[in-house]
Hints:
- By secondary structure, the protein is of the alpha/beta class.
Amino acid sequence: xxxxxxxxxxxxxxxxxxxxxxxxxxxxxxxxxxxxxxxxxxxxxxxxxxxxxxxxxxxxxxxxxxxxxxxxxxxxxxxxxxxxxxxxxxxxxxxxxxxxxxxxxxxxxxxxxxxxxxxxxxxxxxxxxxxxxxxxxxxxxxxxxxxxxxxxxxxxxxxxxxxxxxxxxxxxxxxxxxxxxxxxxxxxxxxxxxxxxxxxxxxxxxxxxxxxxxxxxxxxxxxxxxxxxxxxxxxxxxxxxxxxxxxxxxxxxxxxxxxxxxxxxxxxxxxxxxxxxxxxxxxxxxxxxxxxxxxxxxxxxxxxxxxxxxxxxxxxxxxxxxxxxxxxxxxxxxxxxxxxxxxxxxxxxxxxxxxxxxxxxxxxxxxxxxxxxxxxxxxxxxxxxxxxxxxxxxxxxxxxxxxxxxxxxxxxxxxxxxxxxxxxxxxxxxxxxxxxxxxxxxxxxxxxxxxxxxxxxxxxxxxxxxxxxxxxxxxxxxxxxxxxxxxxxxxxxxxxxxxxxxxxxxxxxxxxxxxxxxxxxxxxxxxxxxxxxxxxxxxxxxxxxxxxxxxxxxxxxxxxxxxxxxxxxxxxxxxxxxxxxxxxxxxxxxxxxxxxxxxxxxxxxxxxxxxxxxxxxxxxxxxxxxxxxxxxxxxxxxxxxxxxxxxxxxxxxxxxxxxxxxxxxxxxxxxxxxxxxxxxxxxxxxxxxxxxxxxxxxxxxxxxxxxxxxxxxxxxxxxxxxxxxxxxxxxxxxxxxxxxxxxxxxxxxxxxxxxxxxxxxxxxxxxxxxxxxxxxxxxxxxxxxxxxxxxxxxxxxxxxxxxxxxxxxxxxxxxxxx
Length: 818
């Protein structure tokens, strides 16, 4: 209760009342006493204390505070006396005594926290200032507000010490009878004796006990999927776990569940890689070894492993492979002489769905390259629609695009001997140089016959004069070479192998590309053989640009890393290994695609094993050759489990309605992809339900629906329904937002700063706390002064009109007046 002395600004002035008996008691003395008393009270400045609605104390009683806010609020209220109104809040808010009972707290939904709601209620009730006692964890969609209409003083409470089971990780799918490793991810705020109680389909397994330090921990345990006879062809394995610790803590996030689909799988098709086929068989996978001819529509194996060059497949087969991944299939490309950049996969439809790219522009050390392209522009190159020449020009332009600015490029057009000319001479591939090369290439037109020797001689002489580290010539022709024949007989037909071998002595290599069935295969093959390069046949002219650029890429870049390298394992859900693995002898250099993830890396973080999602499917790349280059890495006892896990991941096929989720703050974002038989399912009234909440999903793209649901508690089952039919179901491990890690103190401090409030510390004397302006007194001295004036007027009126008692007495009895 407010003290009597608190009702006066100058209470010491009231001591003047003690002097009243010293005043004379003449006629009208009661009036004078009353006037002096009123004036004395006015001088003491009486005031009326602020009303009790002026200050509101908001006490957070949610689960994350562990109840410590009640005691702190009690100290505050004791200091404020009757000037404060106490509210307790969590998901809801109610006016209550600071020491209210537990039943009140439970009624406020302690699994959630809504600070904005509590502030709004207090301000609506007339609060002119708020004291917020909270840990700053707010599970509402908006979070802790950044402003308020009244000043907010804050007292940040410590978070309750907690242990939580964050998630259970397991494969999406397993085959019947297979042993599955499930990993429980545990977070501890302090060291504890932990007991993990797993269960499978409700049947308890043997408890797992551990003594763990504070921090993150992974505790594995194994379960066995039911056999095919018990589960039928398909089924679901429901795995759960409950966490117990030896200290008191919130239990809302101590249980998790996950589901594993039990299905039979088809065979994995392996093309050209017997070493990988043997490894997969050791992991219990069904394997079918086949040839490129196996790639034909309809094409739908459980997964595909490819170790072959792109030239082993027709353009149509490349499209089939890419479409297979895009529509939900799984592809693993493995290293070898015909893999990635070495095998002509650059800019193919298949490379577009892989996790790696053949263009190694990100390597640190790049040798300077001098390259001349010798292009047949005879009349026969005008055949086709688009013409062979146009396709060859497109390839030449791509080569220019690939070049570094320190590289030197040149292009010679040859037909008749007299018509041979430089389209552009050997020059650096700077930005200006590339623009000039592009313009000159586009102007090339077909003419004349097919005489190679003058052009090839000029190309050799040009690169020989360069001081580049790599010197290379690429010859492209579609017809028979007439060197040494007819009008061009001269000294006879050149020995192309000897000519190219002579250039090779000067460290100049030569490759040759034969276009179509009429090309001089023997001469071009001899040229490449003598020049130490590659001979490539482009029977399908549509592949010409890719073959041209790939040959330039292979010759100009050191794509094969042939020194021993110890791969470094990176933490990834598909691989438990992290650190340095045994060395391998060689691998193909590639760069990581933008959305891909690595499991193992080599020199300069070049991918050794990488994975990605492409369209509705998945793909992986192993850039070493297990049959020839893998060395100790290929014999490593952990490699079969890693590759087996990757291939099983590739085998996972999306259901017609596939739901994915991501937790953002206190909301669960849901994305549903609906695809049936490769066709998008559109305009369906899909509804998602989770933890008692429901939301209609909105279609945002062909076959894609999205929505957001509030997260309350730890985990649950997401159900997606199309009308009365459940089309997708997914177990979601969501960290309880009420108990999640958050910097609540910073959010509270920001609120106080923006509203003009103060931040209270735990070491402050809360009982002595006085909010500035919390109980603004109302001055009353004017009333006392007015009363004194009225009494004075009363006395004057009394003296004027009231008869003097002495005048009413007989004369003889009147007192003598002097």
